[in-house]
Design brief:
337 residues, alpha/beta, two-stranded parallel sheet, 13 helices, 11 strands, 43% helix, binds nicotinamide-adenine-dinucleotide
């Protein structure tokens, strides 16, 4: 436990999501006062499954509702904000870019405008951008560095890049908010219940709860970051910014493992681990010549800058992270089947 967090008043947008639920859990363990914005009545989340919601103040509403955001921030004297709420599904964004832009872009500037107007107690704002905001660079440019230009091509990626740039502006004059933008690699681990994401989808199917339907030939490569590493870094970043706005405000941080795995490798790894080799062969066969649209081919994130500023390195290697994830999903899927 770190006493810094005791009684700190923290707002998490997207608390009902994967990262938000895990973050709330850790902050509560550190005795912070956590307020969370939740849209809709979906209780099928880490926040509810692990009973974390009982120790937070949950407020229902939409990110684009400025009046509501203002009320939350003023009434609760919010000091730290983690902005995680977003429409994160790449496929949904391709089919319906409007709603993705509304939440990811308008939602972000609505929140920032309210924060700029009511910044009396605000000491630290963390904006979750994404590795996808960079768009695609050739393999020779891997791992991606914070200095690379954002050049996204697809709707989700564009929405994250737009929110990222808008946030940077708010950290500069004339509105100067204490703000850091994070661009993390693919996050995985307990609590990710978006089963269109690769790792939950594979684990669920390898455990026999569904059939795995390949969306590509499996040659895409991604950098995978375990959730506990992300949460540790998120706490670190917000605390340092709180204590030293001059040094950290306006900074951008990538995090990843500097490494990547091919989608096909991830599928094989999990299926073999769960002794499901017969199914694996059928899947590999189905993947042949399957083309995907609207996705970046290869990405990995450089973590030199976070290491330098926050002494952070990913601690959980991919194999251990997958083991921990399988244990959690096995229980969750059993409880919910
Ligand atoms: N998971 C990853 O691999 C990853 C990697 C890099 C960056 N990120 C970013 O981190 C953040 C959190 O990701 P996650 O995986 O927890 O996503 P998630 O989908 O699990 O959680 C997002 C939450 O935002 C909520 N939300 C969506 N639209 C809203 C709106 N208009 N008003 C209020 N709430 C709304 C959703 O209901 C959901 O609970 C996102 O901003 C995402 O872009 C995620």
């Amino acid at each position: 436990m770190n006493i810094f967090w005791k009684n700190k008043k923290i707002l998490i947008t997207g608390i009902n999501g994967f990262v938000g639920g895990n973050l709330a859990s850790k902050l509560i363990k550190n005795k912070a006062k956590v307020f969370g914005l939740v849209r809709g009545s979906d209780h099928n989340s880490y926040l509810y499954y692990e009973n974390i919601y009982k120790k937070c103040k949950i407020i229902n509403g939409d990110l684009t509702n400025k009046d509501l955001l203002e009320k939350i921030i003023i009434e609760n004297k919010i000091q730290i904000v983690y902005h995680l709420a977003a429409q994160v599904e790449v496929g949904v964004a391709l089919d319906n870019p409007y709603d993705t832009f509304e939440t990811n872009i308008r939602g972000t500037y609505s929140l920032l405008q309210v924060l700029a107007k009511n910044k009396k107690y605000i000491k630290s704002i963390i904006i979750a951008s994404s590795d996808k905001a960079y768009g695609e660079y050739p393999k020779s440019k891997l791992p991606y560095k914070e200095t690379y230009d954002l050049r996204p091509k697809y709707p989700y990626d564009i929405s994250k890049a737009a929110a990222d740039l808008i946030s940077q502006w708010y950290s500069n004059l004339p509105n100067k908010l204490p703000l850091i933008v994070t661009r993390f690699a693919n996050i995985y681990g307990p609590g990710q219940l978006n089963f269109s994401a690769l790792i939950p989808d594979i684990i669920k199917s390898a455990l026999g709860y569904k059939n795995f339907i390949p969306r590509s030939d499996g040659k895409h490569k991604r950098d995978y970051l375990y959730i506990d590493d992300v949460i540790e870094l998120y706490l670190n970043i917000a605390r340092k910014l709180y204590k030293n706005k001059t040094k950290f405000s306006g900074e951008i941080y990538n995090a990843g493992t500097n490494n990547f795995y091919q989608v096909k490798q991830v599928i094989s790894f999990i299926y073999k681990k769960l002794n499901n080799e017969k199914k694996l062969k059928q899947i590999i066969k189905k993947m042949k010549n399957k083309k995907t649209k609207g996705e970046i081919f290869i990405q990995s994130m450089d973590y030199k800058k976070v290491d330098k500023d926050f002494l952070w390195k990913p601690k959980i290697n991919f194999k251990d992270g997958i083991d921990k994830s399988i244990v959690w999903y096995s229980k969750y899927l059993k409880d919910n089947s």
